[in-house]
Specification:
Cytochrome p450, 5-stranded mixed sheet, 3-stranded antiparallel sheet, 20 helices, globular
Length: 502
């Protein structure tokens, strides 16, 4: 696994307040723009006594000693400001920063005047599963509004989300995903993927590109069949490159930042409706809710974006891990299962399932905080009273590594841990790769089938190894909510399995 990044050098924050780094440095590398920010700029303070949106600078003593969150563990400066947290967000270090705080302070950490992070299974269930869908989302999810329209993912309130989800969920139900038409479509994309690998001009293949093409083609097939992309053959490669190689920390205006994808979607929706009745775009356009075309396009863009990066990156991290010399034994065991069970169904291959689950645990597609807003009257979470309107969250990166009673050696890649049925029950309670509760990832079943189909066919034919010329870093590099390999390249070679034709 990629090692955690270290904390930044000693800094001095706004108003001369020193940051957590205490080696004596002065204002080292801290942007002046952040030093000038007001205290707690992300969320206006709302205190328990009813004084809402008060000036933070006039209430240091209250926040530090009397406010409900004052008793929570965390760095001292989090009582006064979240400027350090903002700095970490904008420099792509939020995930590791929070992880280091949890290692130091435990399962509950105050991140700012109005924000708390948790890692326990009890907190996860309360925040994301209580009442079915957990707490409402925060305004952070405004970042994921598409074409000025809220999608299922970017809706904030549970009621609105539930109304939208009823028109979407059926297309992603496991029974529908396992329908022969859907599986055949995925298998057709797997076949195209393998052909491109076999026809590659050089032994070293950039699987980062190929896997993102595969995930884009599968997602667009499910959304818009028969008008899905074929980027793996090169026809729509520019669409994948435009989306997957951009920086989502800076992606805000899709029409300007992603003109090719936007144009492609517009042309697709202008075509005569030939979509099969089982596909999402058709269902939305013909639903009783009468979704406007811009709403359908926004929803499809959201699903396409999620399908490209999350599945593509998850496969990339996993295949790189399997190709490392230290985990060749895992790959060999996977190949043995596949070779001796050629006629088994996808859900009858326990080691394949274990390898994928462990890959998702170690390299979750969304490893970062998934913020929620505490409901009115407040809630008790992990023994602490958290007032209403506070921001609370868990991040999969820490949940999966800092619960040793559930995930022993949590920082190690050990697929065998999932083969014990009793242990798997407890691990699944804490498995947060697809979030949890009623607002968990809608496309999780599709993602699992895509990964199973591809890995089954690939490792039934080939072994993968790190290419000698692979110099790019596979360190996790955070985006707005997801992560990807730092250098966006993963050069692997294919070795035909002995006794099989290549």
């Amino acid at each position: 696994m990629a090692s955690a990044l270290g904390l930044q050098p000693n800094l001095v924050g706004p108003l001369g307040i020193p940051t957590p780094f205490t080696d004596g440095g002065q204002y080292s590398g801290f942007p002046a723009a952040f030093a000038a920010l007001p205290l707690n700029p992300s969320y206006k303070a709302r205190e328990e006594d009813g004084r809402s949106q008060i000036g933070a600078s006039n209430h240091y003593p209250y926040r530090a000693t009397l406010a409900p969150l004052s008793k929570l563990p965390g760095p001292w400066y989090s009582r006064f400001s979240d400027v350090i947290l903002m700095y970490k967000e904008f420099t792509a270090h939020r995930r590791v920063y929070i992880h280091e705080l949890h290692k130091k302070f435990g399962p509950v950490v105050r991140l700012g005047p109005n924000e708390v992070s948790f890692t326990s299974v009890e907190a996860l269930r309360e925040i994301y599963q209580s009442g079915g869908s957990g707490y409402d989302k925060t305004e952070f999810y405004n970042l994921f509004i598409q074409y000025g329209t809220r999608t299922t993912f970017s809706t904030l309130q549970k009621r609105e989300h539930d109304q939208m989800k009823r028109y979407i969920a059926g297309s992603y139900a496991n029974t529908n995903i396992m329908h022969p038409e859907v599986v055949e479509g995925i298998q057709e994309r797997v076949g195209a993927f393998l052909r491109q690998c076999e026809e590659a001009e050089k032994p070293a293949i950039d699987f980062y590109v190929y896997l993102h093409c595969f995930s884009m083609d599968c997602a667009s097939f499910h959304l818009l069949h028969p008008h899905g992309t074929k980027s793996i053959e090169g026809r729509d490669l520019h669409l994948m490159r435009e989306y997957s190689f951009g920086d989502t920390l800076k992606k805000k205006l899709l029409r300007y930042r992603l003109p090719a994808i936007t144009s492609w979607l517009e042309k697709t929706f202008q075509k005569n409706s030939e979509s099969k009745i089982g596909h999402l775009a058709y269902k939305l356009k013909t639903s009783k809710a009468a979704f406007r075309q811009i709403q359908v396009a926004a929803e499809c863009m959201n699903h396409l974006a999620a399908g490209i990066d999350t599945t593509g990156d998850a496969l990339c991290f996993l295949m790189h891990q399997l190709s490392l010399s230290g985990t060749h034994h895992v790959q060999d065991k996977l190949i043995a299962e596949l070779s001796s069970n050629k006629d088994k169904a996808l859900d009858e291959l326990p080691y394949l399932e274990a390898v994928i689950k462990e890959g998702l645990r170690c390299f979750p597609p969304i490893p970062m905080s998934q913020p929620r807003c505490v409901p009115s009257a407040g809630r008790v979470i992990d023994g602490y009273f958290i007032p209403a309107k506070s921001i609370v969250s868990c991040q999969a990166w820490s949940v999966h590594q800092l619960n040793p009673q559930i995930f022993d050696q949590g920082d190690q890649f050990l697929p065998e841990r999932w083969l014990d049925p009793k242990a798997a029950i407890e691990m699944n309670r804490l498995f947060f790769s697809f979030s949890a509760g009623g607002r968990s990832c809608t496309g999780r079943h599709l993602a699992m089938v895509e990964m199973k189909c591809l890995l089954r066919e690939l490792y039934s034919r080939y072994k993968t190894r790190i290419a000698p010329e692979m110099q790019g870093s596979m360190e996790l590099y955070d985006q707005a909510i997801s992560t990807r390999p730092l250098d966006q390249t993963c050069l692997l070679t294919l070795e035909p399995i002995s006794g099989l034709k290549s």
